[in-house]
Amino acid sequence: MKTRPTTSLILSICFAGITYGIAGAAESTVPVIKTFDLETATLDDVQEAMRLGELSSVELTLLYLNRIAAYDKTTGPIGLNTVPALNPDVIAEAARADKLRRQGVDLGPLHGVPFTAKGNYNFKGMATTDGISVWADFTAPYTSHVIEALQEKGAVFLGHNNLDTFQSSTGSTNSQTFGLARNAYNREFATGGSSGGSGSSVGANLTFFALGGETGGSVRSPSERAGIVGYKTSQSLISVRGLAPLAWDRDVVGPMTRYAVDNAHVMEAASKEDPANVWSSVTVDEGRPRPVNFASQATTSSLAGKKFGILTNSVGTSDTGVAGAIKQVFAEAKATLEAAGATVVEVTAPPELDITFTGRRRSLPDTVLTPPTRKLYSPVTTDLTGNMVAGSRAYAFKTFLDSMVTLPGDTPEQIHDKVVARISPVTQLPQQYRTSIAEKTTFGPGHPDTVEHFQAVKYMIHDYELFLADNGVDALIFPTVSNKTASGLTLPNLTRALINSFSLPAVTVPMGTVEVSGSVEPTTIQFVGRFLQDDKLLALAAAYERASQKRIVSPLVPPLDGESFELTMDSYVRANSPYSPPLLVVKKRATAKKTAGVKRLEVGGNIRLKADVATIRAWVNGQSVPVAIKGRQWKGSVSVEEILPYLTPGSKTAELSVLAEDSEGNTSATVLEIRVPKKL
C-alpha cells in the first residue's frame, strides 16, 4: 500500500523538478529515486519502499514465498530444503502489517518484514519438531517469547527452518523430520549446523532474516558457510522461553542477517526482557547493565582508535590449500581494519582461558578461600553438552515439556506422566537425563550447585576481561574457521569453549571468498567481545562491514520476476484514502491448451464484483506467468516448454501464487496448491 514520502524527500524531489524547469525542458518526467533489489536490500531500503508505496508487506512476503517455491522445495531443480514448514497464516499477518501502516501506525524497522526461525522455536499451531521424528506432531500451544517480541515490532513470521536432528551437529543439517538442508552456494556442500536451515535460507535470500540457536557453534558455523552476519549473543540476553533446549546454561538465540546494521535492529527487538525466562533467576555478574541502542551504535560506529587482538595459533599455520586461502583472506581483513584506523596485535591466551584450567583464577578475591567450580558439568573442565550433569540438563527439558503439555485442570501427576511420555522415546537424549525426569530429580537455577556454577562462570568472565585489559584490546578477531572442506569445517583453537562456556558474544561478518573443491564459497571473520556488551561488539562488526563490503551473492539462486523495481516520486497515494484490497477467485486446477501450435499451461479465475484491480501477477513454482485481464476474468498463460523444468516430474500439483493490486497500490495475495494436467 502507498503512503506519502517524508518531508525531506518531497522537498528534494521538488527542488529537482525546479532545476529541471529552469533548464527549459518541455516534457515532464517522473524522478527515479533509486532501484530496489531484493537480494541487496537492507531494512532501510525495505522501509523506504514501503513508505513510498512501491512495496507492501504482502508483496514482500509473496516474493519470499516465490523464492521458496522455486529454490527450496525438496523436489525442485535446486531444492535447498531450508524452510520446510510455512506459517499458514503468513499472508494474513502481512496484510495486518499493511493495514496498520495504512492507519498511520509505524512499528519500526521490522514492520512488515518476513523472518524464519529454527525448528526448535515454538510458534502456536505449528509443530516444534526439534528435528526428531517422534516430535513431528508436537504442536506448540504458545509462541516463543522472542518470536512474539519480533511480531510486536511488526515482523511477519514466515515459517520454520530446517535444523539438525536434536540440534546435534555443527557440521551439517540433516533432520529426521525434514531431511538434508543444502548449502546456498553449492547444494552438494554442507550447510554447517545445527542452524543450517536458518543460515542457508538467509544466504539464499529465502527470508529477510532468520533466528538460529547456538550451544556450541551452531550459529557461527552455518553463518560461515552462508557468508552472512550471524550473532551468538551473551548468555541471558535474549529469552529462550519457548525453545526446545539442548544445554540450558549455554543455549542462546542467534539472529542471522545479510547485514550487520540489520542484525542490530533485530537484536534491539529480540532482546526484550522476559521475567519468565529461565535466566531471569540466574545471577552471572550482578549489576552489569544490559546493552541498549544497538541500531544507533551500529549505524554510527567507527574503527578509528580501536584495537583488536588476534589469538596466537587461531589463524593456523598452513600457507597452502583452503587453510592457506583463509589465512590470506584474513590477512586482507586485518589490512582493512588497519586502513580504517584500527590497531591489530597478536596476543597469547593465558592458561585460564582454556576450559581445562584447574588453577586459582586471577580475578578471584583473596577473601574467597574455596574457589567455586562449574558444578553443572562432570568433569568440570569440559564444555561438551553430554557432560552436563543429568539433573540440570534434564531440568530444561522438563520445564519446556511442562509448558507444552499442561492443560487447565491437570494435576501435577498428570502433567508428569505426559512429560515422561513425550521424553521417553527421545533416544537422542541419553537415558540418564530421561531417567532424571521420570524420577523427579531435576534441579534448576535456585539449586546450590547451579548458584556455585555461575559464580565460577563469573570469575571465568572476569579473567577473560583482565586478559583484554592487559593487552588494551577492544575485542578479539580471528577467522571463523581455520579450514573447511565440502563436508565439514575446523573451528580455531580455544574458540568454541571460550565463547560458549565463558558466555561471550561473538559475531561473524563476510571477509571474502575461498575455493573449496573447485567451488567458490564465502568465508567470514569473527569478532568476540565482552559479556553483555553485545551492542558495542555488533557496532565494531558493522564498522568493519562498511569498510570491507565483502558479501557475495549466490549465483545458485538468481533473482526472480518482480524482485527489482524503481522507487519514483508519484508512486504513492494519499495516506487517508480508503484501504480496500482487491479480491480474486482463483481456480484450483490448471489446464493445458494448444494455441497457434504451442502447448500452454493456463491458470485463472474471477475478479470479485466491485473490486478495483489494476494489475495481476502470477507465478507457478516461483516462475512468472504472464496474466491478461478481460472484464471480470483473468487468465495466466505460459508455454509448457518454458514451465516444464520447474514442475516436479510425476507430481499432480504445483504452487500457484497470485498478487493483485488496485489503482492505489493496495494489494492482496493468494498462495495455493493447484492440480496440473497429468500429461503436459
Automatic annotation (TrEMBL):
Q: Name one Pfam family in it.
A: Amidase
* Residue span(s) of domain Amidase: 59-351
Query: What InterPro entries does the database record attribute to this sequence?
Result: Amidase_CS, Amidase_dom, AS_sf
Q: Which PANTHER family match?
A: AMIDASE (PTHR42678), AMIDASE FAMILY PROTEIN (PTHR42678:SF11)
**What is the protein's name according to its record?**
Amidase
